[in-house]
Design a protein that fits this description.
The structure holds 2 protein chains of 2 kinds.
Chain A (H helix, E strand, L loop, with lengths): L8 H31 L2 E3 L5 H7 L5 H4 L1 E2 H10 L26 E6 L2 E6 L6 E4 L8 E4 L8 H13 L5 H14 L7 H25 L13 E3 L2 H7 L14 E3 L6 H6 L13 H10 L10 H13 L11 H14 L1 H4 L14 E3 H4 L4 H5 L2 H6 L20 E3 L21 H4 L9 E4 L4 E2 L4 E2 L5 E2 L2 E2 L1 E4 L21 H11 L3
Antiparallel strand pairs in A: 1-3, 2-4, 3-4, 5-6, 7-8, 9-10, 11-16, 12-13, 14-15
Helix pairs in contact in A: 2-11, 4-6, 5-7, 6-7, 12-18
Chain B lengths: L1 H32 L2 E2 L9 H7 L5 H4 L1 E2 H10 L27 E6 L1 E6 L6 E4 L8 E4 L8 H13 L5 H9 L6 H21 L1 H4 L14 E2 L1 H9 L11 E2 L26 H13 L6 H17 L11 H14 L1 H4 L7 E3 H4 L4 H4 L3 H13 L14 E3 L21 H4 L9 E4 L4 E2 L4 E2 L4 H6 L1 E4 L18 H11 L3
Antiparallel strand pairs in B: 1-3, 2-4, 3-4, 5-6, 7-8, 9-10, 11-14, 12-13
Classes of the chains: A alpha+beta, B alpha+beta.
């Protein structure tokens, strides 16, 4: 039966609507595809070099905490009066030449924006200068000796509280910066998203974080190179901080170095200052959560890449001169006094007590860090990564002392003891009451005589350094002293010993 | 003609599609809501592990969806007694374990969390503050604040923040639920959980009664629990919180010798008590009768055999030997004789009688009927009015502090003092052991911070009675206490 070529009015309308519908559908589909392409991305900036990946690679912390790159650039300029000095450097971030992002900051294109946030290196990379006039040299996997975490948080929270934190001001500052660098303003759609959503969202997140971490105010200042590891974890769990026992509210310690992790793993050492975990894998993921990753958002391949690299990473050798004869005299002293707890030398970590927890009464150092980590925290950690099979945490244990660590790269791990209360190795070999009662932290010029950073410079070129006071709670420099710990050796013997330790 | 055929086949097509959808929907529904997965192997690897973590089937009707259970302490920390998430409730939680002892996780469609016997019947103690706790299955959970746990879940359900938006965003921070599961949580599990918890409000009214003293850590009002949850009786004025008991070595109870179970001899035999307690955890008739009875058989066997733990501190054996003589002459006539395990009239022992008023012959009769209607045969509850308390067996007595049925006397040393000299106020639920006085540390600042306050002047909390041995000399009391450590 032949189709009639004459269409009724109804059929004509239907066909027209049909075409329009099809056209709308096609446009919608294409539009949707474009939107997904524009805003559905999740790609980190990739680095082929492992070292670069450690310094700048992304672990996925941007998913929950990402700050749009241009806002990150704008904040120190818009709120310059809230920083201790000029730029992000003033809170201790380390910038390599020609970089706009500091070491420890990663970037990812997520949901259509270039966002930045932190990775391992912001706590585990620092600088050393030979003299006050030298260029700083960046060392990775060392404790972040210049980074003042609380100053950074204070600044961030101050911006969130400031009335100037508005879309108008932030976008204007971004435009100024981009013009300075010869760039056009941000694309319209980016500006719209930031104006009507992004900046408000960011402000809300900053203020929520500020409230959760408000209890830190009652702690003595951490100063550069230090952090309270486990009290913020209690904030993460949302434990009410005012109901915590007094003894557990201060747990500030030095950032540690993180090279040579492989040997620590094979020798089954108890990790963390108090030896609360034997699993390197788990400890890594726990630490990574400190950068802001969450179980759903962590970039597993990226984390694995860093973990593998750190297993084999050697400690940086001492870059200054070593008196070989003097060092040779130090070797037998080390063997007699130190090796049992700290390993045969800087490369061979074997020793009877290496990696084991020394009871607090025996080591005698400040117990605040130990007490800040409680049984309740340990069992609650068993819920972290729940639902992800083997990834669920299960190795955290409450201990009652501090763990002995090998001394690989010890020259770069100053100040000393878990709470960074002793500025140099030479000071550590003095009995507690002869150690400096106050000193300065954050200064990166090296003291080759005493082995540690120069610690008596309070101010240089307009930059102030942090005055550490051993009288404050959690800051005691007592302990690790007595005959067994070498504090009764002669001056000459002590000099030889620390000369020997330089090569570790 | 062709048209009608077309219509027919069109209808057939629709019908077929409908049937297919129903079948697929049914399959998905069964998979997501009803499919039971056995618990992982490690749960039943040893009898102790099975007691601590093995499901007894409570997840069917009393299970909370796992992820809701997970986020509640993070969303509502102010509704818990203190910091520490679930740990603040005094649960026994082993290091490395996802859930505390007594909290069972089972997949019935979706993972759910419920309880088993071990939540109330696992004891913990620390030999010193600088040591980690030791957990003893079948012991009394003197640290558990059960009332706070009930209140917590109900308080959360009552809070307007208990809604899909808030809960889902909290879950998203820790776990990425698959898309279908997100829908199920949002539109089914969260609303139903809220509804079921709020439905319990009438039943839970008495847990919030403002004139009643709190149970405190380590105690619960078991008979009223039964009246209000099993029998759905309206709230009355009785109150009888008592210590959670140890449940080891249950073969010591011989019904044929006239022994009865429960603090006031309310039940005929161990099997009945275990069934009734388990039904309490299930909150309903068992889903799978055979499975349930199998669980009961296993529990009866496990608890009949498991022995009381040995005292973990040194014992002066000579002193203990002379203590035995004192025990034989002063204590054995109730605690190591034909009388043990049988009722002592309350007028004779003189202890607080409120617990007896919280139960009745009528309650026993009705409860027995309810359980029979579940299709469960057991000797059951004693159908007469409560009249006294059981003369207790003293095996593992060192770990059963505080003492007397209502836990009103913190240590054995205190129990050997006349009432006037016993502590009037102390703190329960702190797990550091006091080996000098035999019981838990109950006065020092840490005990005060962690424990719940116990005041003997409150209703049902009286510490009067059992003034036996109070006139012994100091040396005799020392020896007696030393002997009691060996039990």
């Amino acid at each position: 039966m032949a189709q009639s070529k004459v269409m009724s009015p109804a059929q004509r309308i239907l066909s027209r609507i049909g075409w329009i519908t099809v056209a709308i559908l096609v446009v919608a589909f294409l539009g949707g595809a474009w939107l997904i392409g524009r805003f559905g991305s999740d790609t980190p900036v990739r680095y082929t070099d492992d070292l670069e990946h450690f310094k700048y690679g992304s672990f996925g912390s941007e998913h929950e905490f990402g700050v749009p790159y241009w806002i990150w650039r704008a904040l120190p300029e818009l709120f310059a009066d809230k920083l201790p000095g000029k730029g992000w450097e003033s809170v201790g971030f380390v910038f390599e030449k020609g970089k706009n992002l500091p070491v420890g900051m990663s970037q990812r294109r997520y949901l259509g924006f270039d966002v930045v946030w932190l990775n391992c290196a912001f706590c585990h990379a620092g600088t050393v200068r030979e003299t006050a006039r030298s260029e700083p040299k960046v060392y990775t996997a060392m404790p972040a000796n210049t980074f003042d975490f609380r100053a950074f948080m204070r600044f961030l929270f101050a911006t969130g509280e400031d009335r100037r934190f508005t879309p108008r001001n932030v976008l204007r500052q971004i435009k100024v910066i981009r013009q300075r660098e010869g760039l056009d303003d941000l694309p319209l759609i980016d500006r719209l998203v930031l104006r009507f959503y992004g900046i408000y969202y960011m402000r809300e997140r900053i203020l929520t974080l500020r409230d959760r971490l408000d209890f830190l105010k009652e702690q003595p200042e951490w100063g550069p190179g230090r952090v309270d590891t486990f009290n913020p974890l209690k904030a993460y769990f949302n434990f009410p901080p005012d109901k915590l026992a007094k003894e557990e509210r201060i747990g500030t310690t030095d950032f540690p170095s993180i090279w040579n992790q492989g040997q620590r793993e094979t020798l089954k050492m108890n990790l963390h200052w108090d030896g609360n975990n034997v699993s390197l894998e788990e400890r890594n993921r726990s630490a990574a959560m400190g950068t802001g990753i969450t179980p759903p958002t962590g970039d597993r391949p990226s984390l694995k890449r860093v973990a593998d690299w750190l297993r084999n990473l050697a400690a940086p050798p001492y870059p200054f001169s070593i008196n070989k004869e003097l060092a040779a005299e130090g070797a037998p002293i080390y063997k007699q006094y130190c090796a049992e707890c700290h390993g045969a030398d800087g490369k061979d970590f074997r020793g009877e007590q290496v990696g084991k927890v020394v009871p607090i009464a025996e080591i005698g150092t400040d117990r605040r860090r130990l007490d800040s980590y409680t049984y309740d925290v340990a069992v609650n950690q068993n819920l972290i990564f729940a639902g992800y099979g083997q990834e669920r945490f299960s190795h955290f244990r409450k201990t009652f002392g501090y763990a002995n660590s090998p001394l690989d790269g010890v020259w770069l791990r100053a100040p000393y003891l878990h709470n960074g209360s002793v500025p140099s190795l030479r000071d550590l070999l003095e009995p507690g009451d002869k150690r400096p009662k106050t000193f300065y932290r954050g200064y990166d010029v090296y003291d080759q005589k005493k082995v540690g950073f120069v610690s008596d410079v309070g101010e240089e070129n307009g930059r102030e350094y942090f005055r550490y006071n051993t009288d404050e709670p959690g800051n005691s420099n007592q302990g690790h002293e007595g005959k067994r710990y070498g504090t009764e050796l002669s001056a000459a013997e002590k000099d030889a010993l620390i000369e020997y330790l330089k090569a570790f | 003609m062709a048209d009608r055929q077309k219509k027919n086949s069109w209808w057939k097509m629709c019908l077929l599609l409908l049937v297919v959808f129903a079948a697929v929907g049914g399959a998905i529904g069964w998979y997501k809501f009803f499919r039971e997965e056995p618990q992982p192997e490690w749960v039943t690897a040893t009898p102790d592990m099975r007691f601590k973590y093995g499901s007894i089937g409570a997840e069917h009707d009393a299970g909370i969806p796992y992820w809701i259970f997970f986020v509640l302490p993070r969303m509502f920390p102010e509704k818990l007694p203190g910091p520490g998430g679930y740990a603040s409730l005094g649960v026994a939680w082993e290091q490395g374990q996802e859930l505390p002892i007594g909290f069972t996780k089972k997949v019935i469609g979706f993972p759910r969390v419920a309880n088993n016997c071990a939540s109330c019947h696992t004891a913990s103690y620390r030999k010193s503050p600088d040591e980690n706790p030791v957990f003893v299955p079948a012991g009394p959970n003197h640290t558990l604040n059960l009332q706070a746990f009930f209140r917590f879940v109900v308080d959360c359900a009552r809070d307007p923040r208990f809604n899909a938006d808030e809960i889902m965003s909290e879950i998203a921070l820790v776990y990425e639920l698959p898309f279908l599961d997100r829908l199920i949580y949002r539109y089914v599990l969260i609303p139903i959980t809220k509804k079921r918890l709020l439905e319990r409000e009438a039943q839970f009214k008495w847990v919030y009664h403002k004139d009643f003293p709190l149970w405190g850590r380590g105690r619960d009002d078991a008979m009223n629990l039964t009246k209000y949850f099993l029998l759905n009786w309206p709230m009355d004025d009785t109150i009888g919180p008592t210590d959670m008991p140890s449940v080891w070595n249950l073969k010591k109870y011989r019904p044929e010798k006239g022994m009865l179970m429960n603090l006031a001899g309310d039940s005929h035999d161990a099997r009945s008590v275990i069934i009734d307690s388990a039904l309490g955890l299930l909150s309903a008739a068992p889903h799978d009768h055979e499975d349930f009875m199998g669980q009961i058989d296993w529990l009866v066997k496990y608890l009949s055999e498991i022995q009381a733990p040995k005292y973990p501190f040194p014992i002066k054996q000579d002193q203990a030997k002379s203590g035995k003589e004192i025990f034989d002459s002063h204590c054995a006539r109730c605690h190591a004789s034909e009388r043990t395990g049988t009722r002592v009239p309350v007028e004779e022992v003189g202890t607080d009688s409120e617990r007896l008023k919280s139960w009745s012959k009528q309650a026993a009769i009705e409860s027995n009927k309810v359980v029979r209607n579940f299709g469960i045969e057991r000797r059951g509850l004693v159908e007469n009015e409560p009249s006294g308390y059981i003369a207790a067996f003293l095996d593992g007595i060192w770990l059963r502090a505080p003492y007397l049925h209502n836990g009103s006397v913190p240590t054995l040393r205190d129990l050997l003092n006349p009432v006037a000299e016993r502590p009037k106020v102390f703190y329960r639920g702190y797990d550091v052991y006091d080996s000098v006085n035999v019981g838990f540390v109950s006065q020092d600042p840490e005990a005060q911070r962690i424990g719940t306050k116990y005041d003997v002047s409150e209703r049902a909390s009286g510490n009067q009675g059992h003034e036996y041995g109070v006139n012994l000399s100091a040396a005799e009391k020392e020896a007696l206490i030393e002997y009691l450590k060996t039990l």
